[in-house]
Amino acid sequence: MNQSWHEEKHFSNRNNWLRASVLGANDGLISTASLLMGLAAAEPNHQTLLITGIAALVSGAVSMAAGEYVSVSSQRDTEAADLRKELDSLTRYPEIELAELTDIYRQRGLNQTLAQQVAEALTKHNALEAHAREEIGITEVSKANPLQAAMASAFSFACGALLPVLLSLLSSTVWLMSTLAVTTVLGLGILGCISAHLGGAPKRPAVIRIIILGALALAFTSLIGRIIGITI
């Protein structure tokens, strides 16, 4: 019987790159727009705005890539260390590890006999995989991927930062702050909608959350730039 109607779509396998992409695009859009708005409030010349925007895009993308790579590499190193410890325990104390796995399934609701049977079957199939999943919480889906996270973060940051940079190129200094504010808020709303869609989450909370926080960042930076401009 065809049961395709009952197939469920899960999006947790996208977490590794989706988190980095959303963070990068959000940071690229908000930080670059905030920087340019703060600078525009001090009324610099058009060339200064453009150079500042390009520098923010390039340096931000490189920084995000490096930061993601280092942080996710640290996570991967921790996972590898835990797996080595588990493999050593499985080699030296197989009976104790089997008892631990049995107890895990018993605590999840299986009776002692069934828990023992499941633990023995999974241990025979792939003991390290079973213990990694049940004891440590490491699966193939959740394993850290530093290069993937770094590339996703750098690319998405550049995409997010590109919008305010193009606006600084095309808009006059007089209208730049207003244009940046409106387009950044719209861009954040679109980003929130896309990220929620890709993650299979409700769109409204994601859009509201990202717009409110982004608008606060823009307003605060603009105020600081105006104060500095007056002081100078």
Automatic annotation (TrEMBL):
GO terms for cellular component: endomembrane system. The chain crosses the membrane at residues 20-42, 48-66, 149-169, 175-194, 206-228. GO terms for molecular function: manganese ion transmembrane transporter activity. It comes from the Bacteria. One of its GO terms (biological process) is intracellular manganese ion homeostasis. It is found in: Endomembrane system. It is a multi-pass membrane protein. Its main location: membrane. InterPro entries: Ccc1_fam. Keywords: Membrane, Transmembrane, Transmembrane helix. This is Nodulin 21-related protein.
